[in-house]
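# nightly structure sweep
# worker-07 picked up a monomer target from the shared queue
# config: single-sequence mode, recycle default, output format = structure tokens
# input follows
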Amino acid sequence: MAFVMLLPGCLGGLQELPSNQGESGNSGEGVYSNISMEIFHGESLENSTANFTIRIMLDHSSAPIHAENMQKHVLAGNYNMTHFHRIIDNFMIQGGDFENHDGTGGYAADWYGFCNGQEMSTQTNCAENAWTIPDEADNGLQHFSCMISMAKTSNANTGGSQFFLMPDDINHHSHLDGVHTVFGEITEGCEHVTTLSEVQTQSSDRPVVPVVILSATVIE
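# output follows
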């Protein structure tokens, strides 16, 4: 399954916090969890030219399935040593393909009732690498700077593990609202996402020098 974006149980670490979504318009009490990503830019950690830490707050109130799905991926270690395989300046950085590491793979962390975008009553006839999650795009969260959203194919309900982060130098990717699901925000290190969005790329918007998630962890 090729994942693209349209262009121009109980989990630990949950907490109740006031939301501060700014222009995205989602305010009030909600349930959130936080993850930390250690990222390096280089062929390996030893010869990396830059190292960054970003923190992301997942919104379990506005996008419960997407937030839980990502948290389960993180707890399973699925994002460790995966690449941001697609980077577009003034737009986003995309990663999360723990299956093929090139943007052609990745699947849901658990069974959420969808197989390659089709709703099914049982997972019996669906291979694990075809598990997807239902869209939650009409949750009021929008594609402003420093938000995280789910990558998917052009078909509905095809999100799995790939996600994209929006840098702090964009305004509003309104054409993605209601199509892709925003499910959290970058609370620390969004300037690093902006820096990474400006790295040199080659064909298919792939970075010339790899941008790699060294580790992703759930934090309190």
